[in-house]
Amino acid sequence: QGIPVAPLWDSFRGQFVGLLSPLDFILILRELETHGSNLTEEQLETHTISAWKEAKRQTYGRNDGQLRSNQHLVHATPYESLRGIAMKILETGISTVPIIYSSSTDGSFPQLLHLASLSGILKCICRYFKNSTGSLPILNQPVCSIPLGTWVPKIGEPNGHPLAMLRPNTSLSSALNLLVQAGVSSIPIVDDNDSLIDTYSRSDITALAKDKVYTHIRLDEMTIHQALQLGQDANSPFGLFNGQRCQMCLRSDPLLKVMERLANPGVRRVFIVEAGSKRVEGVISLSDIFKLLLS
Questions:
Q1: Nearest one of 233, 228, 262 to 247, comparing CA atoms
Q2: Is 203 within 8 Å of 226 (Cβ atoms)?
Q3: Terminus-to-terminus CA distance in the chain, angstroms?
Q4: Which fold does the domain 124-294 belong to in CATH?
Q5: pLDDT tens digits, residue range 76-94?
Q6: Domains of the chain: which residue ranges?
């Protein structure tokens, strides 16, 4: 349905207990690829979310930011500051924080008011500074002059974090492993000249749920090209910049322009490309922006 995460409600405990995200689906598919060959489709369909969450906690020794070790959901109240919520997102490594309100002192009968994200907070910041950039001169500086983001060698300052890139014929298995290991939400797909073609994001994995495609494919046999075609219209050829899939800027663009791009719903990173060739030079994520703003 295109939603970024799904809050989990425990009717027995009468509270929200977690979030289900595309990362969960990725980890499930990797587990099935490794250990699930003997499971029937019926067993897959009846496996509960709570059973998966517990198995993930035991397997990975963590909850990928969604739940703390004491099993309390990472959330915020309507009265917390935007700065506090942004810090909470950065510290836990999660992408979304539920805003929960309860009129009871014991927290019973909670109401889910909103799902806060860095892009939503950034939108408020951009709206505030849009007509008063003079009060914050850094907003007018080109992004290449600011210690921000991840860049290919010899383009920006070395930061010890190589820029991950994929080719269209990269296997889906390799792409998912890279997404998890690098801890990023999306990776650029480039041609032989390192020119940007498309991007593969964690959320793209949900296309495999359509018609239960995941039950009859092997991740190491499907390419990124094929995987993306599952989620695109049949008349939309691979390689076209459809909708909001690829947000691009130039290294000479001011910081405010990059921030405004990142403030769009569903956008988590902007690719810095060379004018004309669209050769990828770097990437700036939402977390990069907030680490700079809060430093």
A1: 262
A2: no
A3: 36
A4: CBS-domain (3.10.580)
A5: 999 999 999 999 999 988 8
A6: 6-117, 124-294
